[in-house]
Amino acid sequence: MHGLRSFVVLALFTASVATAGADETAPSLIANGRVDDAIAVLDGKISASPNDALAHNLLCRAYFSVGEWDAGISECERAVSLEPGNGQFHLWLGRLYGEKAERSLFFQAARLARKVRDQFEAAVDLSPRSVEARTDLAEFYVEAPGIVGGGRDKAERQASSLAGIDQATAFWVEARIREKQGDFSSAERSYRDAIRASHGRASAWLNLGLFYKHRSEWEAMEQALIRVRPAPRDRPEALVDAAEILIRTERNLPEAVQLLRAYLESTSKVEQAPAFKAHFLLGNAEERLGNTQRAVAEYREALSLAREFQPARQALQRVSR
Q1: Which of 49, 73, 169, 232 is deepest in the core (most CB within 10 A)?
Q2: CATH number at residue 62
């Protein structure tokens, strides 16, 4: 998953949300994938309190989850303008710019990439001990060309800073740097160092699986990903991410189903893997397994939570023909 979007796809940690000042149900609605309800709640909150920075940030994140990048950018920019000293708001604005850049033509993408860098650097400056801010910034430095502010030396400085905060994540950044350099043996060692330093947490096994996917080492990828479900769940969305990789590569679809059902049955859903996305992916897996009626049911469930989620709508149309 290389490219400007990868720093979002591979971010290791769930955002911690302070809910003071906005409707306290909104973060829960987003985490549980009830995006339509969350947007309605937040629209009402903003109508009553137009300068509620957190409500604008949460609305941005709701739009992010369904891929409405322009609407999300507008809300995140508003949040930052209202509360420029909040590192988390800068982080989310950078993520939205990154998604928009991934889908833009070269010159616009370059302009947006510089905005990504500026927002991530602001997030780190404001919250220097934020692991998620430093990992997103490090991944940007790894992936982006020097003309827009990328650079290996900058990524290595982030790894050094992370070593005193979260050693496993520091190993992960080192692994990404070595992988980008083409030093795959060193990269693999660093990914495994991250597994050891984290005591085998789910996200570390997921990242090793991603490394093998990039290398088209399918058996090794599958062996890493089957370690995700029983591993300590430091990052619940790792279950969904692992399932998505298995589905996209058409490897061990029954395990993908188990991963998604484990996530949907858990009480630890997070906004990085909204329930509507998990239902959509479960529909993908069931469709590939030949279980058309189960797939239809999952696509409909996804749309009941996020009616504008176009991938589910298109999939439902396809299997209902």
Answers
A1: 169
A2: 1.25.40.10
